[in-house]
Design brief:
This protein is α/β, with parallel strands linked by helices and about 375 residues long. The protein has twelve helices and twelve strands.
Protein backbone atom coordinates (compact mmCIF):
# COMPACT_ATOMS: atom_id res chain seq x y z
CA UNK A 1 0.00 0.00 0.00
CA UNK A 2 1.26 3.50 -0.74
CA UNK A 3 0.85 6.15 1.92
CA UNK A 4 -0.93 9.35 0.99
CA UNK A 5 0.40 12.74 2.12
CA UNK A 6 -0.91 13.81 5.49
CA UNK A 7 -2.91 17.03 5.55
CA UNK A 8 -1.91 19.27 8.47
CA UNK A 9 -4.66 19.65 11.05
CA UNK A 10 -5.20 22.76 13.16
CA UNK A 11 -8.15 22.23 15.47
CA UNK A 12 -9.08 25.90 15.90
CA UNK A 13 -7.68 27.97 13.05
CA UNK A 14 -9.86 28.84 10.03
CA UNK A 15 -9.27 26.64 7.04
CA UNK A 16 -8.15 29.64 5.01
CA UNK A 17 -8.26 33.41 5.19
CA UNK A 18 -11.82 33.68 3.91
CA UNK A 19 -14.39 36.27 4.85
CA UNK A 20 -16.80 34.69 7.28
CA UNK A 21 -20.55 35.22 6.77
CA UNK A 22 -22.48 38.01 8.48
CA UNK A 23 -23.23 37.51 12.16
CA UNK A 24 -26.51 35.68 12.72
CA UNK A 25 -28.56 35.15 15.86
CA UNK A 26 -27.49 31.49 15.89
CA UNK A 27 -23.89 32.67 16.40
CA UNK A 28 -24.97 34.26 19.69
CA UNK A 29 -26.54 33.13 22.94
CA UNK A 30 -29.72 34.90 24.01
CA UNK A 31 -27.80 37.54 26.00
CA UNK A 32 -25.69 38.30 22.92
CA UNK A 33 -28.80 38.66 20.79
CA UNK A 34 -30.32 41.02 23.34
CA UNK A 35 -27.19 43.16 23.31
CA UNK A 36 -27.29 43.36 19.52
CA UNK A 37 -30.95 44.37 19.54
CA UNK A 38 -30.17 47.09 22.10
CA UNK A 39 -27.45 48.41 19.76
CA UNK A 40 -30.18 48.81 17.15
CA UNK A 41 -32.18 50.96 19.55
CA UNK A 42 -34.88 48.34 20.09
CA UNK A 43 -36.16 46.83 23.37
CA UNK A 44 -34.13 43.79 24.41
CA UNK A 45 -37.22 41.54 24.44
CA UNK A 46 -37.32 41.81 20.64
CA UNK A 47 -34.39 39.36 20.60
CA UNK A 48 -36.55 36.74 22.27
CA UNK A 49 -39.37 37.38 19.81
CA UNK A 50 -37.14 36.91 16.74
CA UNK A 51 -35.48 33.89 18.34
CA UNK A 52 -38.88 32.32 19.01
CA UNK A 53 -39.80 32.70 15.35
CA UNK A 54 -36.51 31.17 14.18
CA UNK A 55 -36.00 28.33 16.65
CA UNK A 56 -39.53 27.78 17.97
CA UNK A 57 -41.61 28.27 14.82
CA UNK A 58 -38.88 27.66 12.20
CA UNK A 59 -39.83 30.92 10.47
CA UNK A 60 -37.35 33.05 8.51
CA UNK A 61 -39.74 35.28 6.57
CA UNK A 62 -40.04 38.67 8.28
CA UNK A 63 -43.50 39.04 6.78
CA UNK A 64 -44.74 36.27 9.08
CA UNK A 65 -43.34 37.96 12.21
CA UNK A 66 -46.42 40.07 12.79
CA UNK A 67 -45.76 40.52 16.50
CA UNK A 68 -42.84 42.79 15.53
CA UNK A 69 -43.62 46.43 14.73
CA UNK A 70 -43.60 46.96 10.98
CA UNK A 71 -41.12 49.82 11.30
CA UNK A 72 -38.58 47.63 13.14
CA UNK A 73 -39.21 44.29 11.46
CA UNK A 74 -36.86 44.63 8.51
CA UNK A 75 -34.09 46.21 10.58
CA UNK A 76 -34.23 43.40 13.13
CA UNK A 77 -34.35 40.55 10.65
CA UNK A 78 -31.60 42.04 8.45
CA UNK A 79 -29.24 42.08 11.44
CA UNK A 80 -30.38 38.93 13.24
CA UNK A 81 -31.38 36.71 10.32
CA UNK A 82 -29.11 37.47 7.34
CA UNK A 83 -29.28 34.91 4.53
CA UNK A 84 -26.58 32.30 5.04
CA UNK A 85 -27.68 29.43 2.80
CA UNK A 86 -28.93 29.92 -0.74
CA UNK A 87 -30.50 26.78 -2.22
CA UNK A 88 -28.92 25.47 -5.42
CA UNK A 89 -30.64 22.09 -5.68
CA UNK A 90 -33.10 20.16 -3.56
CA UNK A 91 -33.72 16.52 -4.43
CA UNK A 92 -35.84 13.74 -2.96
CA UNK A 93 -35.77 9.98 -3.27
CA UNK A 94 -36.70 6.82 -1.34
CA UNK A 95 -40.39 7.62 -1.97
CA UNK A 96 -40.07 11.00 -0.30
CA UNK A 97 -38.26 9.75 2.81
CA UNK A 98 -34.88 11.28 1.88
CA UNK A 99 -34.31 14.93 1.05
CA UNK A 100 -30.94 16.33 0.01
CA UNK A 101 -30.11 20.02 -0.25
CA UNK A 102 -27.13 21.67 -1.92
CA UNK A 103 -26.40 25.18 -0.65
CA UNK A 104 -24.27 28.05 -1.89
CA UNK A 105 -22.72 30.12 0.89
CA UNK A 106 -22.03 33.86 0.78
CA UNK A 107 -18.57 33.30 -0.73
CA UNK A 108 -19.71 30.79 -3.37
CA UNK A 109 -18.69 27.68 -1.42
CA UNK A 110 -20.97 24.66 -1.77
CA UNK A 111 -22.17 22.47 1.10
CA UNK A 112 -24.76 19.72 1.46
CA UNK A 113 -27.33 18.60 4.01
CA UNK A 114 -29.54 15.52 4.07
CA UNK A 115 -32.83 14.82 5.84
CA UNK A 116 -33.73 11.16 6.37
CA UNK A 117 -37.12 10.00 7.56
CA UNK A 118 -37.92 6.75 9.35
CA UNK A 119 -41.18 5.55 10.91
CA UNK A 120 -40.11 6.65 14.40
CA UNK A 121 -37.69 9.54 13.79
CA UNK A 122 -36.32 12.16 11.41
CA UNK A 123 -32.55 12.66 11.18
CA UNK A 124 -30.61 15.58 9.73
CA UNK A 125 -27.08 15.04 8.44
CA UNK A 126 -25.15 18.32 8.63
CA UNK A 127 -21.94 19.63 7.09
CA UNK A 128 -19.38 21.36 9.30
CA UNK A 129 -16.91 22.45 6.62
CA UNK A 130 -17.01 23.35 2.95
CA UNK A 131 -14.96 20.47 1.63
CA UNK A 132 -12.62 18.44 3.85
CA UNK A 133 -8.89 18.36 4.47
CA UNK A 134 -8.62 14.78 5.69
CA UNK A 135 -7.92 13.43 2.18
CA UNK A 136 -9.60 10.04 2.58
CA UNK A 137 -9.34 8.72 -1.00
CA UNK A 138 -12.68 6.89 -1.15
CA UNK A 139 -14.69 9.96 -0.04
CA UNK A 140 -16.04 12.49 -2.55
CA UNK A 141 -15.59 15.36 -0.09
CA UNK A 142 -12.04 14.30 0.67
CA UNK A 143 -11.24 14.28 -3.02
CA UNK A 144 -12.42 17.89 -3.30
CA UNK A 145 -10.13 19.22 -0.56
CA UNK A 146 -10.90 21.83 2.08
CA UNK A 147 -12.33 25.26 1.26
CA UNK A 148 -13.11 26.63 4.73
CA UNK A 149 -14.75 26.02 8.07
CA UNK A 150 -18.42 26.86 8.43
CA UNK A 151 -19.59 29.35 11.02
CA UNK A 152 -21.71 28.23 13.95
CA UNK A 153 -24.79 29.75 12.34
CA UNK A 154 -24.11 28.17 8.94
CA UNK A 155 -24.15 24.79 10.69
CA UNK A 156 -27.23 25.52 12.79
CA UNK A 157 -29.13 27.04 9.87
CA UNK A 158 -28.96 23.72 8.02
CA UNK A 159 -30.69 22.02 10.95
CA UNK A 160 -33.34 24.72 11.31
CA UNK A 161 -34.15 24.59 7.60
CA UNK A 162 -34.42 20.79 7.65
CA UNK A 163 -36.52 20.94 10.80
CA UNK A 164 -38.90 23.14 8.82
CA UNK A 165 -39.03 20.56 6.02
CA UNK A 166 -39.93 17.90 8.58
CA UNK A 167 -42.54 20.15 10.22
CA UNK A 168 -44.20 20.71 6.84
CA UNK A 169 -45.00 16.99 6.64
CA UNK A 170 -42.87 16.59 3.52
CA UNK A 171 -40.94 13.58 4.85
CA UNK A 172 -43.08 10.60 3.88
CA UNK A 173 -44.01 8.13 6.58
CA UNK A 174 -42.21 9.98 9.38
CA UNK A 175 -43.10 12.16 12.39
CA UNK A 176 -43.31 15.89 11.57
CA UNK A 177 -40.43 16.83 13.87
CA UNK A 178 -36.66 16.72 13.57
CA UNK A 179 -35.44 14.49 16.38
CA UNK A 180 -31.80 13.62 15.59
CA UNK A 181 -28.73 15.29 14.13
CA UNK A 182 -25.58 13.62 12.86
CA UNK A 183 -22.43 15.55 12.00
CA UNK A 184 -21.61 13.21 9.12
CA UNK A 185 -21.92 15.58 6.18
CA UNK A 186 -19.08 17.42 4.48
CA UNK A 187 -15.99 18.08 6.56
CA UNK A 188 -14.25 16.79 9.68
CA UNK A 189 -16.32 18.18 12.58
CA UNK A 190 -13.50 18.11 15.13
CA UNK A 191 -11.25 20.12 12.81
CA UNK A 192 -13.79 22.95 13.23
CA UNK A 193 -14.00 22.24 16.93
CA UNK A 194 -15.11 25.51 18.54
CA UNK A 195 -17.88 26.24 16.06
CA UNK A 196 -19.18 22.67 16.04
CA UNK A 197 -19.40 22.59 19.85
CA UNK A 198 -21.12 25.99 19.81
CA UNK A 199 -23.56 24.65 17.20
CA UNK A 200 -24.31 21.61 19.38
CA UNK A 201 -25.10 23.91 22.30
CA UNK A 202 -27.54 25.87 20.10
CA UNK A 203 -29.17 22.66 18.88
CA UNK A 204 -29.78 21.31 22.39
CA UNK A 205 -30.76 24.55 24.14
CA UNK A 206 -34.54 24.90 24.58
CA UNK A 207 -36.36 27.43 22.39
CA UNK A 208 -35.99 30.36 22.04
CA UNK A 209 -32.32 29.89 22.97
CA UNK A 210 -31.99 26.97 20.54
CA UNK A 211 -33.71 24.09 18.78
CA UNK A 212 -34.38 21.93 21.86
CA UNK A 213 -32.97 18.60 20.68
CA UNK A 214 -31.74 15.92 23.08
CA UNK A 215 -27.97 15.69 23.50
CA UNK A 216 -28.27 11.93 23.28
CA UNK A 217 -29.78 12.29 19.82
CA UNK A 218 -26.74 14.08 18.41
CA UNK A 219 -23.80 12.20 16.89
CA UNK A 220 -20.41 13.72 16.11
CA UNK A 221 -18.26 11.86 13.61
CA UNK A 222 -14.48 12.04 13.43
CA UNK A 223 -11.66 10.31 11.57
CA UNK A 224 -9.77 10.24 14.85
CA UNK A 225 -8.33 13.61 15.92
CA UNK A 226 -7.12 12.34 19.29
CA UNK A 227 -6.61 15.69 21.14
CA UNK A 228 -10.05 16.87 20.01
CA UNK A 229 -11.73 13.62 21.12
CA UNK A 230 -10.25 14.09 24.59
CA UNK A 231 -11.30 17.73 24.59
CA UNK A 232 -14.86 16.79 23.62
CA UNK A 233 -14.98 14.35 26.53
CA UNK A 234 -14.44 17.27 28.91
CA UNK A 235 -17.31 19.39 27.50
CA UNK A 236 -20.01 17.90 29.75
CA UNK A 237 -21.99 16.84 26.69
CA UNK A 238 -23.61 13.43 26.26
CA UNK A 239 -23.45 13.30 22.48
CA UNK A 240 -22.49 10.08 20.70
CA UNK A 241 -18.99 9.81 19.28
CA UNK A 242 -18.76 8.09 15.89
CA UNK A 243 -15.24 7.01 14.97
CA UNK A 244 -14.62 6.54 11.24
CA UNK A 245 -12.16 3.67 11.56
CA UNK A 246 -12.46 1.87 8.18
CA UNK A 247 -9.49 -0.43 8.89
CA UNK A 248 -8.28 -2.22 12.05
CA UNK A 249 -4.59 -2.25 11.04
CA UNK A 250 -2.24 0.71 10.65
CA UNK A 251 -0.86 -0.41 7.30
CA UNK A 252 -4.21 -0.06 5.54
CA UNK A 253 -5.61 2.76 7.66
CA UNK A 254 -2.58 4.93 6.81
CA UNK A 255 -3.89 4.86 3.23
CA UNK A 256 -7.65 4.99 3.79
CA UNK A 257 -7.54 7.59 6.58
CA UNK A 258 -4.28 9.55 6.17
CA UNK A 259 -4.54 11.19 9.60
CA UNK A 260 -3.67 7.71 10.91
CA UNK A 261 -0.09 8.59 10.02
CA UNK A 262 -0.22 10.91 13.02
CA UNK A 263 -2.47 9.01 15.44
CA UNK A 264 -2.38 5.24 15.05
CA UNK A 265 -5.27 2.83 15.55
CA UNK A 266 -4.27 2.05 19.14
CA UNK A 267 -4.11 5.75 20.07
CA UNK A 268 -7.43 6.55 18.42
CA UNK A 269 -9.22 3.65 20.11
CA UNK A 270 -7.70 4.55 23.48
CA UNK A 271 -9.12 8.09 23.14
CA UNK A 272 -12.49 6.63 22.13
CA UNK A 273 -12.59 4.37 25.19
CA UNK A 274 -11.70 7.36 27.37
CA UNK A 275 -14.64 9.22 25.83
CA UNK A 276 -16.96 6.28 26.53
CA UNK A 277 -15.78 6.02 30.13
CA UNK A 278 -16.18 9.76 30.73
CA UNK A 279 -19.63 10.10 29.14
CA UNK A 280 -21.13 6.64 29.52
CA UNK A 281 -22.00 6.76 25.82
CA UNK A 282 -21.37 3.84 23.53
CA UNK A 283 -18.92 4.67 20.71
CA UNK A 284 -20.09 4.00 17.17
CA UNK A 285 -17.34 2.49 15.03
CA UNK A 286 -17.98 3.47 11.41
CA UNK A 287 -16.54 1.06 8.84
CA UNK A 288 -17.06 1.54 5.09
CA UNK A 289 -17.08 -1.85 3.36
CA UNK A 290 -14.76 -1.53 0.35
CA UNK A 291 -14.46 -4.45 -2.06
CA UNK A 292 -11.14 -6.33 -1.82
CA UNK A 293 -9.64 -3.53 0.29
CA UNK A 294 -10.78 -3.79 3.93
CA UNK A 295 -13.39 -6.55 3.83
CA UNK A 296 -11.21 -9.64 4.33
CA UNK A 297 -12.26 -12.15 7.02
CA UNK A 298 -8.99 -11.69 8.92
CA UNK A 299 -9.67 -7.97 9.22
CA UNK A 300 -13.11 -8.75 10.66
CA UNK A 301 -11.43 -11.02 13.19
CA UNK A 302 -8.84 -8.37 14.08
CA UNK A 303 -11.53 -5.73 14.48
CA UNK A 304 -13.48 -8.11 16.71
CA UNK A 305 -10.45 -8.61 18.97
CA UNK A 306 -9.88 -4.85 19.23
CA UNK A 307 -13.51 -4.13 20.18
CA UNK A 308 -14.51 -7.19 22.25
CA UNK A 309 -15.69 -6.17 25.69
CA UNK A 310 -15.66 -2.44 24.88
CA UNK A 311 -18.57 0.01 24.99
CA UNK A 312 -18.82 0.08 21.21
CA UNK A 313 -21.09 -0.74 18.30
CA UNK A 314 -19.93 -1.33 14.73
CA UNK A 315 -21.86 0.40 11.96
CA UNK A 316 -20.88 -1.18 8.64
CA UNK A 317 -21.46 1.16 5.70
CA UNK A 318 -21.95 -0.18 2.16
CA UNK A 319 -19.71 2.13 0.15
CA UNK A 320 -21.53 4.56 -2.12
CA UNK A 321 -18.97 4.75 -4.98
CA UNK A 322 -18.12 8.14 -6.42
CA UNK A 323 -18.01 8.60 -10.21
CA UNK A 324 -14.71 7.47 -11.70
CA UNK A 325 -13.48 6.01 -8.42
CA UNK A 326 -11.57 2.74 -8.25
CA UNK A 327 -13.34 1.93 -4.98
CA UNK A 328 -16.50 -0.19 -4.94
CA UNK A 329 -18.84 -1.68 -2.35
CA UNK A 330 -18.22 -5.14 -0.94
CA UNK A 331 -20.49 -7.89 -2.28
CA UNK A 332 -23.36 -8.81 0.04
CA UNK A 333 -22.02 -12.31 0.86
CA UNK A 334 -18.71 -10.76 1.94
CA UNK A 335 -20.57 -8.17 4.01
CA UNK A 336 -22.64 -10.87 5.71
CA UNK A 337 -19.53 -12.88 6.59
CA UNK A 338 -17.91 -9.77 8.05
CA UNK A 339 -20.99 -9.20 10.22
CA UNK A 340 -21.04 -12.84 11.33
CA UNK A 341 -17.42 -12.79 12.46
CA UNK A 342 -17.87 -9.56 14.43
CA UNK A 343 -20.99 -10.86 16.16
CA UNK A 344 -19.26 -14.16 16.93
CA UNK A 345 -16.60 -12.05 18.68
CA UNK A 346 -19.34 -10.53 20.83
CA UNK A 347 -19.35 -7.16 19.07
CA UNK A 348 -22.70 -5.48 18.40
CA UNK A 349 -22.89 -4.88 14.64
CA UNK A 350 -25.40 -3.50 12.16
CA UNK A 351 -25.31 -2.51 8.49
CA UNK A 352 -26.30 1.06 7.76
CA UNK A 353 -29.47 1.63 5.76
CA UNK A 354 -28.22 3.05 2.46
CA UNK A 355 -30.08 6.15 1.36
CA UNK A 356 -29.99 8.52 -1.57
CA UNK A 357 -27.98 6.59 -4.15
CA UNK A 358 -30.01 7.98 -7.04
CA UNK A 359 -29.48 11.57 -5.88
CA UNK A 360 -25.71 11.44 -5.33
CA UNK A 361 -26.32 10.60 -1.68
CA UNK A 362 -22.73 10.23 -0.49
CA UNK A 363 -21.20 13.33 1.09
CA UNK A 364 -19.75 15.66 -1.53
CA UNK A 365 -21.21 13.94 -4.58
CA UNK A 366 -23.88 16.54 -5.26
CA UNK A 367 -21.44 19.41 -4.73
CA UNK A 368 -18.93 17.73 -7.04
CA UNK A 369 -21.58 17.27 -9.72
CA UNK A 370 -22.63 20.91 -9.41
CA UNK A 371 -19.03 22.09 -9.47
CA UNK A 372 -18.43 20.23 -12.71
CA UNK A 373 -21.17 22.32 -14.30
CA UNK A 374 -19.85 25.66 -13.06
CA UNK A 375 -17.40 27.57 -15.23
CA UNK A 376 -15.03 29.64 -13.11
CA UNK A 377 -15.04 33.41 -13.70
CA UNK A 378 -12.66 34.25 -16.52
CA UNK A 379 -12.45 30.70 -17.78
CA UNK A 380 -12.76 30.17 -21.55
Amino acid sequence: MTSLPLTPVNLDAPARRAAMPPRHLADLDLAGRQALVAELGEPRFRARQVSTHYFGRLVRDSGQMTDLPAAAREKLTDRLLPTLLTPVRELTCDDGATHKALWRLHDGSLVESVLMGYPDRVTACLSSQAGCGMACPFCATGQAGLTRNLSTAEIVDQAVYLAGVAASGAVAGSPPRLSRVVFMGMGEPLANYNRVVAAIRRLVAPAPEGLGLSQRHITVSTVGLVPAIRRLASEDLSVTLALSLHAPDDGLRDELVPVNQRWKVSEVLEAAWEYAARTGRRVSIEYAMIKDVNDQPWRADLLGRLLAGKLAHVNLIPLNPTPGSRWDASPKPVEREFVRRLRDAGVSTTVRDTRGREIDGACGQLAAAEGDEIVAPGAP
